Amino acid sequence: MFKVTTWKKETPEVQVSLDDLARCGARRMIVEALEAETDEYVQRLKEYRDAKDRALVTRNGYGRPRKVLVGSGEVVIEAPRVVDGREGKRFRSVVLPPYLRKSANVTEVLPLLYLKGLSTGAFGEALSALFGDEAKGLSATTITRLKKVWEAEYEAFRRRDLSQKDYVYLWADGVHLSIRLEEENLCLLVIVGVTREGDKEVVAIEDGYRESTESWASVLRDLKRRRMKAPVLAVGDGALGFWAAVRNVWPQTKESRCWVHKIANVLDKLPKRLQPQAKRLLHEIMNAPDRETFSKETNRFEAEYQAKYPKATECLLKDRKALAVHFDFPAAHWKHLRTTNPIESAFATVKLRTRVTKGAGSRTAGLMMAFKLLESAQKRWSKVHAPELVALVRDGIRFIDGVQFQEQERIAA
Fold it and tell me: What span, in angstroms and rounded, lies between the C-alpha atoms of 404 and 413?
């Protein structure tokens, strides 16, 4: 509502906050969408008549006012009602389902707040700041109940059958979270895959132990036990635990190192004054258009820094082969195969290098909340570039410097 204040000179001035405007706008948009949806439904079915030639599908006023929590706060909606006289048929709004009380976006905020270290009792104040003072539906009791539901969902997720899934590419990374009531941090072992159709999906998220080989092997063996096929390529940082596990469980899977991790590790072994120049050289290597250029730029980096900073060059050269494996895959996929970005971006605020003042109350809670965070992020992931080429990779089609082998022969001819 707009609040009008009258000053001594009787000059009216409208006082309204951005939050008020957002809530008014949200309510108006929802109402308009409901009206359009209802009118379309009635108009589409206007030809259905009874024995007396009366319309079977008609509007019938409005329902009781209902409070709905959306991203801009709580709004009150009176949804249009429809009488559908057809046998076994009933109008059900897609915009505002019968029992909806809060939008999905509000629910997605909860695991993020929890992972950021907010205790259950503090949710009310935080959510009021985000969604308005009327965010009463998300009390501590509600959060506790939702946590139990999420835990059941997570258990179902980690037991699902994978025989019908075909993950051609995998990204793997370890994510470390603070645990408020324990001394030992939680190490999440996260795997995200690309299906034959080019979709990105969360494959696994488990509680590991410092990214050890046995922890990773346990995760991979479980995926194999649930009949998951060996991926063609796995992408990850240089953590030896993961790669040793991959060679043991899926020896045929090719290995690709994450360039984001590699660049950070190499620069860490150089003086700060040299890091800007070195970073440019490393990016030229990473973005090389073919293997030949990759080799030339790598040799250039070695010649530049080997004499004084052998640890930096050793860090780069030890993974030289794995850093260039993307040349054996479609060029359209290189952007995806050079980094573990899907995992990095989803956990950007809770990675080990980010200082989290507090953490989840227990390892189980942290694991389950991280699962919900990834699940929410997955809904917004787009397909990889040129998704139709993923199936070719699975089928064993050969690529040289990013170009399909048969296509290279045709160009040469």
Answer: 15
